[in-house]
Amino acid sequence: MENQITIREAVMENDVAAFWEQLHAYHRRDIFPGSDGEELGYFLSPEYHDHMMKIHSRPQDRCFFLFFQRDGQDIGFAMPVIFTSEDGRCFIMEYCVYPEFRGNGTGRECAGALLNWAKENGALYAELHYGGDERRRRFWKAVGFVENGADERGRPLMILPPAEDIPVTVEILADPDDRQLRKLENGFLKEIGEQPATEEKQEQLAQAIRDGKIAFFVAKRGCRAVGMCSAAKCFSTFACTDAGVFDDFYIEPAFRRKGIARMLAQAAQKWSEENALASLTVTCAPCDEGMYQALGFDTNLGKTFAYLS
User: Fold this and answer.
1) Which residues have C-beta within 8 Å of that of residue 97, sequence separation ≥ 6?
2) Average pLDDT taken over every residue of the chain
3) Does residue 160 contact residue 125 with C-beta atoms inside 8 Å?
4) b/e per residue, 149-161, with b = 16+ CB within 10 A?
5) Rounded CA gap, 115 and 154, in Å?
6) Cβ(269)–Cβ(275) under 8 Å?
């Protein structure tokens, strides 16, 4: 059909070489314009090339090198990874329509073709990071994506939410170095207006978990962590025994209003009872009081004041 967007995979050696040529041009022109800095250098480096080629060549959950075509002519490219061994997430690593073909809805048509291709190849939903670029955010929002926290490096994420409902379970975090915990923590920090956690702070948190100072409860949709909360032990001189503090309460925006908040709160409360804690308290803003009361935190202990050193 004339003017229809189609997708072809770069398979032959010359096609793969052409893909890398366009990818490098895209990084120079669209992502790091006028820059010769360290970050651009990484994306142009043999290290990055070799890393992506390994992902491209692996037998499962591999990266695809795709070209968008119209009337037999290449007009752009995409680099998605489909995690079929996990929960069917298609992560769009790179997406570009060549400058001379932009406008008149071509970008949205290419995005639609990519999402259809991903579904045909086993994807159940799609995710990407937009680098905080407002133009990209507006573009993907128009396609149907919504903002959804941040990744483990603090880069803002968007998601085209899955249509399928998968049972959610809650478990105590077993691995203090879990990448998904770092991802959720950065989403939580982004939502409350804080900067992403530094590597030093991430290691301090992991060490606190190893030392048993804090326990994290993670809500998982299949194998994807979509929410968390924590409980930290402290000694109560009032009760003369251990008490607990409830914190780090966060659910990715795309997965809210599905009962996950109650599941997390109940898991922490049950853990508190099993560990014979005198109480489990939470400090919150006035606007959140009703929510926490509905989740079982219904004993008012007055206001909390803090001195921050």
Assistant:
1) 68, 75, 76, 106, 107, 110
2) 94
3) yes
4) bbbbebebbbbbb
5) 25
6) no
Contact 245, 231 (CB under 8 A): yes
Per-residue model confidence as pLDDT tens digits over 151-208: 999 999 999 999 888 899 999 999 999 999 999 999 999 999 999 999 999 999 999 9
- 186's CB contacts (< 8 A; 6+ apart) are 149, 150, 151, 152, 153, 154, 196, 197
Q: Residues 59-87: what's their mean pLDDT? A: 95
DSSP 71-134: TTEEEEEEEEEEETTTT-EEEEEEEEE-GGG-STTHHHHHHHHHHHHHHHTT-SEEEEE-TT-H
Q: pLDDT grade, residue 37 (50/70/90)? A: confident
What phi and psi, each to the nearest 5 degrees, are found at residue 5?
-85, 125
pLDDT digits (tens, 9 = 90+) for 121-131: 999 999 999 98
- Give the pair of three-digit tokens for residue 58: 């692996």
In this structure, what token pair is assigned to residue 163?
């249509």
How far is residue 70's CA from residue 10's CA, in Å, rounded to a whole number?
A: 16
Q: Which amino acid is at 105?
A: G
